[in-house]
Task: structure prediction
Amino acid sequence: MRYLVTGGAGFLGSHLCEHFLKHGHEVTCVDNFSSSDGSNLRYLGGYEGFLSACLDVTQTPLSDFFDQVKFDGIFNLACPASPPFYQNMPIETTLTCVVGATNVLDLATRDNCTVLQASTSEVYGDPEVHPQTEEYRGNVNSFGPRACYDEGKRAAEALFHDYAERRNTDIRVARIFNTYGPRMLANDGRVVSNFIVQALQDKPITIYGDGSQSRSFCYVDDLISAMLRLFYADYKRPVNIGNPGEFTIKELAEKVIAITNSKSEITYHDLPVDDPIQRCPDITLAKETLLWEGPQVCLDRGLEDTVQYFMSELKDGRI
Amino acid sequence: MRYLVTGGAGFLGSHLCEHFLKHGHEVTCVDNFSSSDGSNLRYLGGYEGFLSACLDVTQTPLSDFFDQVKFDGIFNLACPASPPFYQNMPIETTLTCVVGATNVLDLATRDNCTVLQASTSEVYGDPEVHPQTEEYRGNVNSFGPRACYDEGKRAAEALFHDYAERRNTDIRVARIFNTYGPRMLANDGRVVSNFIVQALQDKPITIYGDGSQSRSFCYVDDLISAMLRLFYADYKRPVNIGNPGEFTIKELAEKVIAITNSKSEITYHDLPVDDPIQRCPDITLAKETLLWEGPQVCLDRGLEDTVQYFMSELKDGRI
Result:
């Protein structure tokens, strides 16, 4: 089979590409490297059947670019996904979400193949309902510093809905909650990579707010496993994918310090505007619909693997 | 002054164009006539200084099209705005909202002029807070039959926010609540025009649901007046514009029957999916910030004028 992964050079994208390559499939990665440095391609370049194209899904119609190729499945992961990155290019982020969505949807419609949208728990914004089910409509500020991503992803869901309704496109929509693991960027501003890199360098661990806000952290292998189940299932509505185990940011910092045996101290800083206080997936639907057993990797084990990865990155001078 | 009005052939757009023309300004109307039939141009064509271009804001970069022209102000009203129209072209609607927004924002940035976005009470979805203030984040289903419009308009607000922040574009965002008056399309599925045309033809008046859902109806002159105040004010965040007087749909039907002296009977039909139960603007911000006195035209007078308009349309065979 031949799969297209947009954003394939990113954290999740590279794991997904590698999964398919390991199973003997052909994979084409499309990425504009706006929020990844291409270094994840080193895990993929050795596989036969891997192709990488540097292009922007808002600029190049994929149906034109791939006019001689037919895909058997498409994963749309192209978008800056961490606040420092998407807030640094907010207009491009919204357009990547919306124009990028129509681009992959047009291609999937042409090729009559399944297309999976990497949606996000950010569609719930700063939720007032816990845990969040897929029915919850969210609490998003449409006119704020996170809106470029949140509203872009919401509008992309609307487009996926309408292509399914109007053009019979075979869509999947995964609402991805916080995920962590090897190949996260050291500098992407996400809390797990931030804390680990700070701890490994014995630098102060920066908590925004008082650290009592909670997050659920899903290890990347669990996330990819559930995403693939969704892709092969016949379910065309949004599905939450994540780990419902909740930890406060302070607990995470303490775990990281313990695992890395770090001398870092915790420092507290102002909470950014519109930062969600709590977010946790209700994964009942995923378990029932995808026959998914739920996450298998506990936070301690996942953090240990992630720490190993960043230690190696530091040792090799890549951070 | 030279103003650009996208969607200038529509209901609100044509009133806005005429206002400027009456005051001796030049007006360029851009419209693709996807949800208007061009008949409103008959009110504008007689004015010197009126130009109309048939183009699609998702297809043609306005900065290229108007490379020899500089505008002093832009009003972005281009979008199908009634559910039957936008649900008939959902993908195009989302793209009009999002790509259209970047298009006018790019032009306003180039011309260093103010650009006003016609946003909508639909950003509040089916609200759980009454009346709605601008702080309320809404209750929108991102994956449903109204999402193309609601999420498109929310994403457009995000883009206006980010152009203001990043490119210093001089933005205005009007969240427009239900508006009615002469030049509504007879067939656009909005409740006021529906009821009046049905009543004038002695056909059954179709209420969806039990008629107890409420709406606030703002007469077009009041809306345009407030929108102009916003345009000339120095306030760059969203502002509700509408009439906070609430009436149930059933009350509206009875008023219309009385005014038209109609033999129509009321019939009840299933409520459409995601139809809001109640919507009413809190216009405190508009009153304080724009020194707006609030709506001046009561529903009875506004309906009488609107009935006169549709009677004339019927008499002239245009319905």
Q: What stands out?
A: Chain B has a mean pLDDT of 96. The CA atoms of residues 122 and 150 of chain B lie 5 Å apart.
